Amino acid sequence: MKWTLNQKYYWQSLRFFLSHPRFKLTFVLMILFGLYASFLLPNTASGYLAYLPALERILENRTFSFLLLLLIILNTSQAFHTFSEDNARIIRYQNKKNYFFETIKMLLFYNISVIFIQFLIVLTGLNIFCSFDLGYGIYTSWQIPNLVYILFIFFRKVFLLMILSVIVFVSFHLFEKAIVMLISCLWGVNYFNGGNLLGFLDDRLLFKIGMESYLGGAVYDSFLEETLATFLYLFLAFTLVSFFIKWAAKRVRRIAS
């Protein structure tokens, strides 16, 4: 398969980002997160869980989701700093607006890559501690294969983390970075402590509106309800974030001029 010039540039940019000294600390944290997830979470009083039940427990765990939030916020901050230092990138995209949209695409590429590296570390740990049995079975609450449940929760988590990273990244362009980092971390701590910023609206609407509700495991009683609510939430979130990006692009261009 032949790669286009833009694809090659993306991969070269990712290699530069991952090899940067700032990413070394992030990678150490990722290894620690992976060890925590694969060594401690599947360990029960009767021994280690089988592979898929262990992965299911990890994806549902609030602490692990909180650590992923911190990882994405940290990585987004590092990406913003890297882009800000690269004056050649602005020249490459001719104007501030093109640069703004392109850096959002690259941010998503970076963060998706980091998430998959993190889960590769987790899966490597599970291969060590939980490889005695695959543990394929039924997720009893929804009566679906546990592998389907795991894939559903995993991809939903990835989509939500990418939405969050774009919100944080765009906010860096509009507001003081330290304030954005503080608010992001406070929101993450609130989630870790069981809080839900928009939880007061849940009883007034047909579905849960807070992102915190969807970062863990099952929310609704049936897979059909969960799927419909998830797609509706993601559609609304993508729509709002798209408007936010377009509004921010005008502000960024005005500031640059």
Can you put this structure into words, describing what you see?
There is one protein chain. By secondary structure, this protein is mostly helical. The chain has one domain (5-256). It contains nine helices and four strands. The strands form two sheets. A two-stranded antiparallel sheet has the order 1-2. Strands 3-4 form a two-stranded antiparallel ribbon. A hairpin with a 4-residue loop joins β3 and β4. α3 packs parallel to α7 and α7 (146-174) packs parallel to α9 (223-256).
Low-confidence blocks of residues: 1-5
What is the helical fraction, as a range of percent?
over 70%
Distance from first to last alpha carbon: 41 Å
Shape summary: globular
Percent of sequence in beta strands: under 5%
Decide which structural class fits the backbone. Answer: mainly alpha
* Number of strand segments: 4
Give the mean pLDDT: 85
Number of helices: 9
Give the structure's gist in a few sentences:
The chain is mostly helical. It contains nine helices and four strands. The chain has one domain.
Describe the SSE topology.
Elements (H helix, E strand, L loop, with lengths): L4 H15 L1 H20 L2 E2 L2 E2 L2 H10 L1 H24 L1 H6 L3 H34 L8 E2 L4 E2 H29 L2 H16 L30 H34 L1
Antiparallel strand pairs: 1-2, 3-4
Keywords, separated by commas or semicolons:
mainly alpha; two-stranded antiparallel sheet; 73% helix
